[in-house]
Every structure is written in C-alpha cells, then in structure tokens.
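Hi Q.,

Before the meeting this afternoon, I wanted you to have the adenosine-5'-triphosphate prediction in hand. No need to reply - just skim if you have a minute. The sequence and ligand are here:
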Amino acid sequence: MSNPLELHHVSVAYDGPPVVRDISLTLEPGAIGCLIGPSGCGKSTLLRAIAGFEPLRRGEIRLAEQRVAAVGHSLPPESRRVGMVFQDFALFPHLSVVGNLAFGIRRLPRRARRARVESLLELVGLADAAALYPHQLSGGMQQRVALARALAPGPAVLLLDEPFSSMDATLREQLAREVREVLRREGVTAILVTHDQIETFAMADRIGVLADGGLRQWDSALGLYL
Ligand SMILES: Nc1ncnc2c1ncn2[C@@H]1O[C@H](COP(=O)(O)OP(=O)(O)OP(=O)(O)O)[C@@H](O)[C@H]1O
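Predicted structure with the ligand bound:
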C-alpha cells in the first residue's frame, strides 16, 4: 500500500528565513506520528503546510501518492484529503452534534450520510448525545465531536494541533488513549502536535523531535530512548 503522507525536503518561510527547514518524513498507513519540540520550533507551521495553509519555499508534500504541494504548486486545503482537529474544537455552535458531523459530508446521498453519522456516533461513544448542541457538552465530549467530524469525509491523514491542551492532565491522558483507539479502529493515519510527553507516549507510533525548524529525530518511542 502507498504511504498516506510523505514530506521531501520541506522548507517553509514567512517573511524572513525559513522556520521549517529541510524536513523529510514518511508516515505508514494507520500510523500515528507526534511532533514535539520547544515553543516556536515550527511544529504548527509544518502542520499548516501539510493542511495547505502555508506555501512551500522548498521541497514537496505527497498525500496518498498525490503531489499536493511543491514550489509554485499548492492544492487548496479543501482539495487535500486532510482532516483537522484543533485545541479550540471550532464546532459549529448553531448545529447539533448530528449537524456538526453531517456538515462535511453533506454531498453524500441522504441514506449514506445517515449511516456514516450513526457509525461515527458509535465510534466516539456519543450516540446518546446526537441531538445536543455544543454548549450542552463537556470539553471532552466536544473534542470527541470534533474528532468524529474530522473523520467523517474519510481523510487520508488527520492533523491534530494540540487537541487536548485545554484539558486537565487526567482527562488529557484518558482522551489521548480514547482517540488512539478510535484512530486504530478506523485505520486512520494521523499526525499530532503536542507539548505533552504523556500524550506523546500514549499515542505515538513515531515521534518527531523538532528544534529550530529542523527534524532532529523521527523514531519510535523505544528508539528515542536507545
Ligand atoms: N503567521 C506568522 N507570521 C510570521 N511568523 C510566524 C507566523 N506564525 C509563526 N511564525 C513564527 O514561525 C516560528 C515557528 O512558529 P510555530 O507556531 O510553527 O512554532 P510551534 O513549534 O508550533 O510553537 P508553539 O509550540 O508555541 O505553538 C516562530 O518563530 C513563530 O514566531
């Protein structure tokens, strides 16, 4: 099977010198990669480049074999098969849980859409909350809705940018394990940015250590210790 995500010598710059430098990495199907490193080292910028919000200064990004970004070439985010989950959930406040989940698949025929929403509700354990609105949900429940919504269209890669950082440590670890379980069951490939070591070791098949815009290591948790 082809790799869902490949980065080849990727550099990204804002106004000045590159803040992401010459990063190459590959994620295998179903693998979860975690990017860690000090504040300002370029983690979010790299994620934004994969999503399609930042152009490349150098290199190439391939998603499920398709070249989505290179110098002078950039598919818009909505044309890339990526799903995104952020710290602040960004749920639609005026839509119920079902409405939030159905939004990204509204072009599917009605019956298929309904079946997909039902299976996602089961997947994240929210079948009883289908008719509720975001403000009626706890933070953990909202994040599960955000996850299910991102998974709905069947992305090649799911991008998570500090998805649990607004939660307390106990809930964070529990959610990290839950999310890993959900991703495993769906066979989803994902890349997660975090500051949190517990989260990293709870979730990652591969850990990427960034410093000053460069990828210093790309290895399993065990490999990082050895
Ligand atoms: N929109 C922007 N315009 C200009 N510079 C930016 C922009 N966004 C980020 N930067 C700079 O790029 C560098 C990398 O930032 P980035 O947010 O990717 O790091 P990070 O590792 O995700 O940090 P944090 O862990 O604090 O979120 C930093 O020096 C930052 O100041």
